[in-house]
# Entry
Amino acid sequence: MSFFTRGEDPFIIAGPCSAESREQVLGTAAALSGMGIRLFRAGVWKPRTKPGSFEGQGIPALEWLAEMRETFKLPAAVEVAEPEHIELALKHGVDVLWIGARTAVNPFHVQRLADALKGVSVPVMVKNPVNPDVDLWEGAIQRIERAGVPEVAAIHRGFSSYASSAFRNQPNWPIPIELKRRRPDLFIICDPSHITGKRALVQEVSQRALDLCFDGLMIETHPDPEKAWTDAAQQVTPEALKGILCHLIKRRQSAESYTSGAKLEQLRQHMDSIDAEIIDLLARRMELSEQMGLLKKEQNMTVYNPDRWRDIVDTRSTQARRLQLSPEFIVALYEKIHHESIQKQLQVLESLDKKIKD
Ligand code: PEP
Ligand code: MN
# Structure
């Protein structure tokens, strides 16, 4: 039977950022019982940014988790970053392993873990690497899958960025959406705790994840979050978690009523025909680019003209505003269109230059 199963309710993983003491582990699990939590999380080896800070309780924490599993019949998950962690976690009966964001970024490292997982029957969750690279994330998942691991899930925990923002890690939602497009079978869990870095925002990001069709949530939960040894600002109490879960609005993927389903289908068809027109128009626009390339070559002009580009940005943003569209969105779109047009013209210019030379 699969461990990660899709049901009416999202798959909820809860527990502290780090296992700090026996009392904290057992106390958190006791407070979580009866809430429908599917998996208990706790970091036993902690990847810390600076040396000298608390780096996890190691083996004693695995023993507290073993007691927790036994007492509350709740499966446990820990982060593993070294082959030795895998061996120790499995020896202590840990049910699920996860690979952290700082490990997922390094293919050599992920491969070492994959090699250590060969022949082992334990579900593994792979967090996104810290940098926003969907291929790297998918690659890490494939390495673990190719080791023969029976079930692999993905955890979206956001991406590092130097820019200041309300979030600790940028969600960059198009990345998990793209992963799901490539791998519709993959179970994807959102970790709003590490995305937000602030408990006040966890509810909002959890709802966003459900609205975007994520399968589950991993929410850091601590009996006394302010005193937590790691990630104090983002953890929530079990009581607060109950409130978050209660307020989550669950959405379905297809319409319940036949008429709404039919109406939605009609709207989608209308959208499909508009998209066909957009692509048609883009193809015609690119034909013009080719003609322009020929003219520019004939007149020995540069392909890129800053004044023309400024004019495109101004006129298209003005039109966007008039039509209640975000000018940022339209400019971003035109950056792509203009870039493609420049490429087309460069191709024309360069191939004619080459012909003349030959
Ligand atoms: C964690 O889950 O506590 C953790 C260290 O996460 P990440 O790898 O996402 O930083
Ligand atoms: Mn944490």
Remarks:
- The chain has a mean pLDDT of 96.
- Strands lie at 11-15, 39-41, 76-79, 96-99, 124-127, 152-156, 187-190, 216-220.
